[in-house]
């Protein structure tokens, strides 16, 4: 009961003629656009300025924090490094000297140099964040 007749041949299979592939379209006349290059107007300078401001604020706060630490640990003021850090911290915190008049020297140094450190961090990071949004 099995049928031994051959199956009809599908076009393109076997030895018969291949089917028509359909219409052949020519290559597009316009070449694809080149990759997009970054231009100067894309905000790269603004991001770089934000990074510079952020870094300057961090360095200023680091010097102030280091001076507070050296003072609280009673570092040798005759040492060149300690003198350098004290001079830089005094120049950064000139506007906040003697805002707080405390009897305790350590608390006075902590407040007189800690306040500018916090302000430099807040203002510097705030400006940098604002610049990055544009």
User: Which stretches of 5+ consecutive residues score pLDDT under 50?
Assistant: none
Q: Total number of β-strand segments?
A: 0
In terms of structural class, how would the helical and strand content be classed?
Answer: mainly alpha
First and last CA, distance: 82 Å
Outline type: elongated
Strand portion: under 5%
Biggest sheet architecture? none
- Report the radius of gyration as a whole number of Å: 37 Å
Could you state the order of secondary-structure elements as H and E? HHH
Helix content: 40-55%
The DSSP helix count reads 3
Give the overall average pLDDT. Answer: 84
List the topology elements.
Elements: H1 44-72, H2 80-92, H3 105-132
Helix pairs in contact: 1-2, 1-3
Describe the 3D structure.
Helices cover 52% and strands 0% of the residues. The protein has helices spanning 44-72, 80-92, 105-132. Helix 1 packs across helix 2 and helix 1 (44-72) runs antiparallel to helix 3 (105-132). The termini are far apart. The model has no long low-confidence stretch (mean pLDDT 84).
